[in-house]
Amino acid sequence: MPELVAVEAALRRLERVVVAFSGGADSAFLAWVAHNTPGVEATAVTAVSPSLAGAERADCEALAREWGLHWRTVATTELDDDVYVANDGDRCGRCKSALMDALDPLAAGATIVLGVNVDDLGDYRPGQAVAAGRGAVFPLVEAGFTKADVREWSRRLGLRTWDKPAAACLSSRVPYGTAVTVTVLSRVERAEAGLHALGFRALRVRHYGDTARIEVPVEDLAAVVDRREAVVSAVRSAGYAYVTLDLEGLRSGNLNQAITVSRS
């Protein structure tokens, strides 16, 4: 397993950084390390838009307060982009472009850093190329950190995000070709919040018009069935007419399969 000093060294070479801070395990770890590395001036910035769940924004604020981070928010305007809204497969790239547009004025000579890890390089994530092309740096990749490494070092450091389930933006719940709108994102957010309230930590609610497709880890499938009435009620309260359970379980980024197949 790579050493923590490898991440610290990558950050120290940059001296001044703006960390894109979504509150997930990777960006939280990177923000904490940057804040606590001597010789590094770090600001953590959370991009706020309808694609960020309100609970995630609140957790970013809580983490910043707990860890003493230099933190602020910035509004992003990806939903003003017709190409992003059309959701034709380049949504992630357009989102990262909007993020860089918002972060660039704040950087003022600093380097924008993202919590991309080595495992992320194998998935279809066009946003990474867009961010890198505009000068963003991935210190975790430079240090050779995988997702498992991030979680293990976070555990060792006592960071409560060490076992936080991956969340991703709400737009990732919308199949390519289906328009991304505030109404759709709000419906997904409410449905997922209802399931979180029932005690399910790791989950996705995929949006298919009036139908919600729930994904949870395979080991939680039985619990969803056992609590069928409460689950159905929570999801229907968000505006869905039909509630389905994906028996293959939770697969982060599985909607990317459609893009991968179409381009192969």
Primary descriptors:
264 residues, alpha/beta, three-stranded mixed β-sheet, 12 helices, 7 strands, 13% strand, globular, disordered C terminus
**What's the story with the biggest beta sheet?**
4 strands, parallel
Indicate the proportion of strand residues: 5-15%
Nearest-integer average pLDDT: 94
Strand order of the largest sheet: 3-2-1-4
Shape: globular
Low-confidence stretches: 259-264
What's the gyration radius in Å? 18 Å
Number of DSSP E strands: 7
Fraction of residues in helix: 40-55%
Query: Strand pairing plus helix content: what structural class?
Result: alpha/beta
The termini sit apart by 34 Å
Question: What is the number of helical segments per DSSP (H or I, 4+ residues)?
Answer: 12
What is the H/E order?
A: HEHEHEHHEHHHHEEHHEH
How would you describe the overall organization of this protein?
By secondary structure, the chain is an alpha/beta fold. Helix content is 45%, strand content 13%. It is built from twelve helices and seven strands. It has helices spanning 4-14, 25-36, 54-67, 82-86, 91-107, 126-133, 139-142, 147-157, 182-197, 221-226, 228-236, 257-262; strands spanning 16-20, 41-48, 71-75, 111-113, 204-208, 211-215, 242-245. A four-stranded parallel beta sheet has the order 3-2-1-4, sandwiched between helices. Helix 3 links the parallel strand 2 (41-48) and strand 3. Helix 5 runs parallel beside helix 6 (126-133). The chain is globular. 41% of the residues are buried. Residues 259-264 have low confidence and may be disordered.
